[in-house]
Predict the 3D structure of the following.
Amino acid sequence: MQAHIDSVAGEIRYLDELARADSPIHRLSAMSKLITTLVYVVSVISVDRYNISGLIPFATYPIVIATLSDTPFRVLLPRLAVPFVIFAGLSTLLFNRDIYGLTISSSIIIKSLLTVSSVVLLIATTPIYAISTQLSRLKVPQIFTMAMLMTYRYVLVLLDEVALASTAYRLRSPAKNKGIALRDIGSFLGQLLLRSLGRAERVYAAMKCRAFDGTFRYKTIDNPSEIRYIVPVCLAIILLRITNISLLVGNLFLGFAR
Amino acid sequence: MHMADALLSAEVGGIVAVVGAGAIGYSASKLKRAKNIDRLIPLMGVMGAFVFAGQMLNFTIPGTGSSGHIGGGLLLSALLGPYAALITIASILVVQCLFFADGGLLALGCNIFNMGVIPAFIAYPLIYKPLVSRSVNVRRLSIASFIAVVVGLQLGAFGVVLETSASRIAELPLVAFVLLMQPIHLAIGVGEGLATAAVLSFIYGSRPELIFASLDNKEVNIPVRGVVVALAVAAVLMAGGLSLVASQYPDGLEWAIERSTGGSDIEVAGPVHSLVANVQAKSAFMPDYDSKFAGIVGGLITLVLATSAGLVIARLARWHKKV
């Protein structure tokens, strides 16, 4: 359990570090990346479920973005195996043991790979405070964007506490290897919860001392060059959606081959 | 139970995202009127982080050998009230989606609905609160929270089934899907229910005022009718959207062709048309299999091109840095 918690904390720190790097993609505003990621995800999932060849050209987007932003592919890989999607894909195959079932399953898995990559690339190139600020600018309730930001901030702290507490528990109960016994979970989580509430009070006091009044102030940044990124990229994605590039390329190639 | 983008259609994802966003907006407006709103923000942040970290902890369920972990929906509702709980759960889901790909971006709406709106706006006011309001003691607290968690999780799992089936991406027969999902989530719900009951009992033992805080809050007044109406509207929209997509009639173009030519194919006529037809015939290697085969070949070539483009860009970037 300690190892699991450590790896989770490590992943968060690593993504945080990646997001602070510098590259042409990092320099884009959070708004551009949010819009293009959303357009990409919607375009990919709206592809007909029997159309596999039409999905493949969509791989261009994550490949190019990952390369331009210097995001190592090892960041994308572990997240691509989404258990629920694999379960749904395989179940589809189970209930439709024919070419159609295979096509649908493959389509689901490929769509999952594509959409997950695009979201991972978003967070690997955009610090979460930038996303939170951008959402506030879009009039998303600040109470939500700030809670989101603070949840992120305190996840590492709470993970440390949970790791410490679970180590202490295991040192005092050597026979229990699998986890925490059910009869202990109440007091274990309860103590953690009470300590978290105490921490929340102290954080609140610290924020009030620094003149926090419930609102988040951000400077307005106007970056007109963003349109030069958003429009072409979104148009390209939509083009990929409405045409089947694989088919065109394949026909051309085979035409030449004759 | 986190939904992925790949299983959702754009329509279903969009509609439920609107419902989820509406729930967040509604909760935020309710909280704005509460006193000490600035105290709520660090509270929600830290509690969100607590639930996130708490989900890493597995506890063993005696007699079954299996393990479970807390979900947090009802726990947060019982301690913070439903509005703050919804926003906290939404924050946790966003962090999970972005950092761990646990749930898709468009599917955030569905996840916020299944794991936030259902425990906070259905299980909490309809099960937990009525049972506990009459009199508070450890027994009532445990039973109420246990039932609320189990029912909430069953409804949430059913939500996943409905959203997946309505999207018509995965071809899963509804009955089989339900029979698969519900028992699994019943088992998970039992584990989570026991843990939630245990935690709330502990809190009641050490800091009872926390349990009473949300119960006594008169401002918490979920309009159940409103929730039901919103759900019904969303369901109608989805069903309507689906019926348009799954229309039995030929699509507009085919219908037009049938009406105008009396057949379903257009005959080639005229020099321009023959020229284009010739080009198409020549460029299609195998006229019968052309679509699938060309698609596969084209797909592979495109993939190779895209990867090469990636490598070239990486090379150029490195060369640029050196210079």
The longest strand of chain B covers residues 59-60. Chain B is about 75% helix and 0% strand.
